[in-house]
Design brief:
Blueprint lengths: L9 H36 L13 H5 L1 E7 L2 E7 L5 H6 L1 E4 L4 E6 L5 E5 L15 E4 L6 H28 L1
Antiparallel strand pairs: 1-2, 3-4, 3-6, 4-5
Helix pairs in contact: 1-4
């Protein structure tokens, strides 16, 4: 949370704040873009390059995609992946192995994901596998975000401080 004390004529201050809204959105958008790009890089080149998971095929690492969009009075930054097995790594779960196929059960969503024996998952499945094989949580997205939290706060505070400092000059 960012706290501020504003001293002066409330009508003039309110008018100045409204006038600075476009500049505030622009500064916030630029900061968001830098932070989303930095988070994406942290996930790809630290977390998915050996710190949490080792890179085997590059599919998961290459799927990490940053995006920023403005939605009315909000700016939304997102780092996402569309790879099915990312969720079981992030949150953990179980793999059910009945014979020649495997199914991953994602505890957080309750979804089952089919994985064939010739996939990248086959090396995880022993020949005499029990029916449920636990997959430990290996958070690569949430931990990266938590580690960047101080930088995220400081970046937004600095961006907003620069805009708010113009109130005193207006």
């Amino acid at each position: 949370m960012i706290n501020a004390v504003v001293i002066g004529d409330p009508r003039r201050i309110s008018s100045n704040i409204r006038a600075l809204f476009p500049e505030t959105m622009q500064a916030t958008g630029k900061s968001m873009a830098r932070l989303v790009f930095a988070l994406s890089n942290k996930i790809k080149f630290q977390k998915l390059s050996g710190q949490v998971l080792r890179n085997k095929t590059g599919v998961l690492r290459d799927s990490i995609s940053p995006s920023v969009r403005a939605d009315g009075n909000s700016i939304i930054g997102q780092v996402a992946t569309n790879v099915e097995y990312a969720r079981i790594h992030e949150y953990g779960g179980e793999i059910h192995h009945p014979g020649g196929t495997a199914y991953m059960f994602d505890k957080s969503s309750g979804r089952a994901i089919f994985v064939s024996n010739n996939s990248m998952w086959a090396h995880l499945l022993p020949r005499t596998a029990p029916h449920l094989i636990p997959m430990p949580e290996r958070s690569f997205m949430r931990t990266a975000l938590q580690e960047m939290e101080p930088d995220i706060r400081a970046t937004f505070e600095n961006a907003l401080s620069e805009v708010v400092s113009k109130l005193g000059r207006a």
